[in-house]
Amino acid sequence: MTRYYDQVDMGDELASVEKEVSDQMVLDFCDVWSSGGGASRFTDHEIAKKEGLPGAIVPGIMSMNYMAQFLAGWADGGQLKKLDVVFRQPVQHPQTISFVGVITDKNQVAGENQVECDVYIQNAYGDRLVGGKATVVLPGRK
Amino acid sequence: MTTQELEFDRSQLGVEYDAGSFPVKAESIIKCCRALGESNPIYLDEKAARAAGHPGLVAPPAFCGIFVRGFGRPDIKLKAGGGGMHAGEVIENHVPVYAGDVLSAKTSLKDVYAKTGRTGTMVFVVWETSFTNQRGQKVADVQESFMRRA
């Protein structure tokens, strides 16, 4: 259902979403991303451990795509204009992560209905592994 | 170590390189979106995308970031620590990307700076890439930051 600009306000929370990230999902993503670039810290737990990581990790660009997916899903009918992401801690897999967000501002700029959001990818303990700031453009009512 | 003290090839700052051209394939969009657990049909089914008013299968909003890996970027001869990790990324979208588009990319070194915190000094290298489609429209700007410990 389309989300309209007049339906949202500063301080509103984006409905949280959980996602189970499997080893296979990361393998499939890496197949597109690195054109089957072989085993790496992203796809092989042993290689990751040799590099000092606790296990294989989700590539940063995959975390970013997850966050963009969360925002695009929330902004049904709108567009993700900008996403600025900081990778705070490695995101291990397999694990269930959750996406949370809050609206921090809304402005009409050059005819666009822009909504600013803070978003995070969290683990089951509530640790914020990835942080982001997004600008989303929502439709207005005709 | 401060930013002024960093040793790297400063003549590379702002120099734009042609990073190549990138055809946006439907199967890549679909495979990427399946890997992300996407269920919105505009990313998975061309007919559904057209029925929703799009000219073709839609690429997800951070898709351009996928192409940035593997750019043959020049050695900036940075003398600070080793290894490195992806510290952050910014994507700014201008027009949507569809299957069948052919994107061309230009990349440049935007910034190199040092920051000192509780855990020591970190050096950040920032690359900026601009994507244009075959119609000459600017599609997206992608900024990647890589961090290494000094």
Description:
The complex is a heterodimer of chains A (142) and B (150). With 142 residues, chain A is of the alpha+beta class. Chain A has helices spanning 23-33, 45-50, 60-74; strands at residues 13-21, 79-87, 95-109, 112-122, 128-137. Chain A has a domain at 5-21 and 58-137: Thiol Ester Dehydrase, Chain A (Roll), CATH 3.10.129.10. Helix content of chain A is 23%, strand content 38%. In chain A, strands 1-3-4-5-2 form a five-stranded antiparallel β-sheet. Chain A is elongated and about 55 Å long. The model of chain A has no long low-confidence stretch (mean pLDDT 95). The mean pLDDT of chain B is 93. Chain B has helices at 26-35, 46-51, 64-67; strands at residues 16-23, 85-93, 102-117, 120-132, 138-149. At the A-B interface, helix 1, helix 3 and strand 2 of A face helix 1 and strand 2 of B. Strand 2 of chain A pairs antiparallel with strand 2 of chain B, so a sheet runs across the interface.
